[in-house]
Amino acid sequence: MAPGGTGVASQLAVCAPALIVTAVAFLALATGAGMAYLPLLAVGPALAAATCRPCGVLGTGILAVTLGTALGTRGDAPAGEQAIVLSALMAVTLASSLASALRERRERILAAVRSVAEAAQHALLKPVPATVGQFQVAVRYSAAAAEARIGGDLYALLPTPYGVRMIVGDVRGKGLPAVSTAALVVGVFREAAYDEPDLLDVVARIERSLSRNLGADDFVTAVVVGHFRSGHMEVVNCGHAPPLLVRDSTVTAVEPARPAPPLGLGALTGETPSLQVLPFTDGDQLLLYTDGVTEARNERREFFPLIEGVARHASDEPSRTLAALADELLAHVGGSLHDDAALLLLRKPSTTDATPVPATNEPLLQSAAAL
Prior knowledge:
The chain is α+β, with helices and mostly antiparallel strands.
């Protein structure tokens, strides 16, 4: 809705309680019912508790009591009955004022939480520019807890002395522990990606850090990718969903040659990740994602067909591709995702491409109040 429309709706919500009280009083006068309509005056201050500040609730209550007194004097109801109804009106007004004050306090706390969450999101999941090195890039992210802004899914992409490197991962669990683990993984990756010439050594450093900090049942699935030389891409898959390679309108899942356990479980299994090398030339695209995308279900409990969706929407502009893919995903689930979801699309532009459209780190799902 446009800002002007929002302002009008807000003003109507504030005025509605007083209008209801006035309408009840007018109806009582028009029908001559008098005391019969008097209890309905309590609707005004009760509704005002949800839309007005405490002073507005008191004002609505005073209006209701004043009109109720006027209506009572015109009727033939016993004075005791009138006093009981008017006392009830005053009690509802006081209770509604208290409820309004508590609501305002909760709204201030929520606004502070949102502010902190947005700062945390920018610190942990930094916005990705339209181009990184020689690649076009786009990112879409949504946390399952919309007000939290961030969750257990993670991504990072940065240029290093050893080429562009990126990670997309999914922490087991949800809530603050998952966010803490995601921050740990992203922090270690950003340091190791600059320091380690070998991509497997980057993964090993993350593994060592997680083994010291995670519980016995915790782990992180992840795909770590690096562009180490022209025309090739390195991929290390640690128990994560396979990346999708888009080439000449064909979408192929890059399955690991040798499956490896998720990060944090290496010491338990004794297995180490393997390195895959993919040809990656002009026009090729690589999509990294989390299971919040592929496991999204519609009302018939059908999973989202990601490969088919990528084939339908693949274009020369990653941001446009992900925008169309995100719209289809939300339509598939009926407008609300129930798990963290991340998409990161990397494209090697050809020399004939036009200037790329800027990519943004947009959420898949805007909150009801933010993916």
